[in-house]
Design brief:
It is a single chain. This protein is an alpha/beta fold. It folds into two domains: about 10-105 and about 245-279, Rossmann fold, CATH 3.40.50; about 105-245, 3-Layer(aba) Sandwich (Rossmann fold). It contains eleven helices and twelve strands. It has helices spanning about 20-35, 50-60, 70-75, 80-85, 105-120, 135-145, 160-170, 205-215, 230-235, 245-260, 265-279; strands at about 10-15, 35-45, 60-65, 80, 90-95, 100-105, 125-130, 150-155, 175, 190, 215-220, 240. The protein has a six-stranded mixed β-sheet with strand order 2-1-3-5-6-4, with helices on both faces. A six-stranded parallel β-sheet has the order 9-8-7-10-11-12, with helices on both faces. The protein is globular, with a radius of gyration of 18 Å. The protein starts with 7 loop residues before the first strand and ends with a helix. About 50% of the residues are buried.
Length: about 280
Amino acid sequence: MRIRATTRLLAVVGDPVGHSLSPAMHNAAIAALGLDAAFLALRASPATFPDLARSLVAAGGALNVTVPHKRAAAALLDRAGELVRRTGACNAVWPGVAGVTGENTDVPAIAAEAARLMDGQAPGRVLVLGTGGSARAVVVALADAWPGVEIAVASRDAARAADFVGWATNEGIECGVRGAGEAATADLVVNATPLGLAPADPPPLDAAALARLEPAAVLDLVYARGGTRLASLARAAGIRAADGRGVLVAQGAASFELFFDVPAPREVMHAAVEDALRA
């Protein structure tokens, strides 16, 4: 793609970010619609993220935000969407009439993918792995989709887990902490940790843990070429499972429409992601 002086620059910002397929997905959509824009992947530390985000928006650009900056992005906004206010996390930032504007497009994307996996059944119990911005989006999405669902969060950091439960309680969502040795089952398991981004990562749950949980479905928000190890383990055990590609496309299409104020070419974006994961 040729970048001219007037080209609008957009980016996905995170750390790590080299794995992200957002540039391939968004640039395919930009090309399909003939827009004068380019979408990049930019790595930023927690210290450099705020200045990078503000500079990009000040130049007329926009950004998707990934690990570990979603909560920091929410703090930068002059105008926060309803889902940002509820989750305290933001994954889409753009220049609005009231200044730096943001929304959480992860929430509806996660709700849609979880509903697809559950195949019309309402889960009684859900186990969410992780306590970051993505986990907040998961909890809000599931609590809205299935009022009364029993949600538990698992974390390697007890203090973060307690803080997470406190946030959920303040939002009117019942959420508990699942200890490492607990044997409670779950109808749906969602991995909202970064485990699986690196090829050497262990799966966030092994086969024995999945057998104890007996879930009907597993949603891994991580995506990888050939699928993630967690999704593969689940399918091998006869459990419905998906990695994060469906959520990626859904949240990306919603972000694209906020950034450009035109309908997103969702089939083009989906094809670009599938092509990249086959490469």
